[in-house]
């Protein structure tokens, strides 16, 4: 029976220890990757919500601009009609 440091029993213990260390490192690495993935997923969801909020704000702004354009067009048409009416009065 071997009695030195590299005895069969010590080698088996060392192999078991190294395998456990490797497994622990793999688990920790996997956990880190999962945390990074979860964090990135959360950030992506927040960005999607922000993009949707901005899109809705743009649609609201466009609707307001369109309404203002309609009002301005009506005002210009009214002024043009009034101007034509005044010119006709002055001509008569």
Number of strands: 0
Provide the domain count. Answer: 1
Any low-confidence stretches, pLDDT <50, length ≥5? none
Overall shape: it is: rod-shaped
Strand content: under 5%
Order of H and E elements:
H
Average pLDDT taken over every residue: 92
Give a quick account of the main beta sheet: strands, pairing sense, barrel closure.
none
Helix share bin: over 70%
**Span of the ends, CA to CA:** 133 Å
Radius of gyration: 39 Å
Summarize this entry quickly.
With 92 residues, this protein is an all-alpha fold.
Report on the architecture of this protein:
The chain is mostly helical and 92 residues long. It has one domain. It has one helix and no strands. The longest helix is centred in the middle third of the chain and has 84 residues. It is rod-shaped, with a radius of gyration of 39 Å. The mean pLDDT is 92.
How are the secondary structure elements laid out?
Elements: H1 8-91
Keywords:
91% helix, mainly alpha, 1 helix, 92 residues, rod-shaped
């Amino acid at each position: 029976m071997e009695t030195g440091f590299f005895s069969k029993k010590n080698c088996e213990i060392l192999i078991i220890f190294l395998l456990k260390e490797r497994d622990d490192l793999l688990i920790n690495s996997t956990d880190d990757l999962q945390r990074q993935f979860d964090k990135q997923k959360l950030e992506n969801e927040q960005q999607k919500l922000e993009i949707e909020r901005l899109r809705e704000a743009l649609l609201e702004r466009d609707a307001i601009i369109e309404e203002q354009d309609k009002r301005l067009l009506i005002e210009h048409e009214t002024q043009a009609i009034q101007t034509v009416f005044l010119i006709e009065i002055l001509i008569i």
